[in-house]
Request: fold
Amino acid sequence: MKILSIVGARPQFIKLGPLSRELRKQHQEIIIHTGQHYDHAMSDLFFEQLEIPVPDINLETGSGLQGAQTGRMLEGIEREMLSHKPDLMICFGDTNSTLAACLAASKLGIPSLHIEAGLRSFNRSMPEEINRVVADHTSDLLFAPTETAMNHLADEGLSTKSVLTGDIMVDSVRFVQARLDVDHSRQEGYLLITLHRPYNVDDPVKLNTLFSLLSKLEQPMIFPVHPRTRNIIEKHQISLPENLQLIHPQGYIEFQGLLKGCSKVVTDSGGLQKEAYLAGKPCITLRPETEWVETVEAGWNRLCDINDPDLATIIQSFQPTGKQPNLYGKDVAKTMVEEIEKWFELRD
Ligand code: UD1
Ligand code: UDP
Reply:
């Protein structure tokens, strides 16, 4: 098969890594990078560390308003699809790159697979929620990471094209585990913080309040900062607690090292909520809802408003003790490639 994988943002490179490796054992893969993320530390570094081939095409879309950014990608992706005529297009997650990929494929009648299907926050003010719904409804094959995701797909009448495969990030994490023992971890006991959701970081007042709430904590905090968030901090000269260390976005290996050494995670990232669970670290998620509800149900993830006056106490006191059931599967890339091959045979 000739497969076109489309990625554009950091979490998608992480998901592509293990799948690409498995796909290339039997099939031809062409990688399109939309260029949504472009800094070395947000893009190339992940290709290097996860040993993913350099993308065949980079559309160099760059940043922009939702519509402008998606529109530029759509035009470029359509052009490449017409030129390469793939048997299957694969896209991941819920970014604008996902949306553009699915729209282009469905208009051209190119068979498409959406990985990480069925996630719902039921919060339509998130651009990601719109992207997910469109991706699931326009794709021909849906790989859901969890039972909850399968149920959402069933509720929307999409069961016949849905398969429960587990979560591909299980394989991404396992891939870097082997490289971690070199020791990238620092001293133990710090909080690991990441934030990039527009509703949390685009309002400097909210961000300022967050840092004053965090300043009540005495333990060290390490915050590898997303460029979106850094821009706001710098533009508004927001002051940081003394025990909070702002560092550049980290490579995947270094970041997993930081995760290994931390005491708890504070985040609004989707991927990190799962990785915290897999690493056995308590996670405080600064959002009103999450798509990864099973981590909350298992007792290892706690939702909290970013400006909750009790934030410091909540972070300090959150101490999950419950067991950690296997929520996300095992050898997921292999399962996915088998399911792709089965699906393709049945179509012929
Ligand atoms: C995007 C995704 C989000 C995902 C996140 C992962 C959408 C709508 N959002 O959010 O779902 O969780 O990626 O990180 O697709 N910037 C740089 N350098 C870069 C990339 C971005 O400086 O390499 C800055 C630019 O100022 C840009 C801003 O970050 O305007 C936001 O980037 P963008 O890709 O639009 O959205 P993210 O917040 O990264
Ligand atoms: N990550 C990383 N370096 C960092 C911050 C995050 O490698 O400095 C990884 C993290 O391990 C997770 C992914 O990036 O797998 C999450 O990406 P992000 O938070 O940007 O997006 P989301 O998952 O929320 O869509």
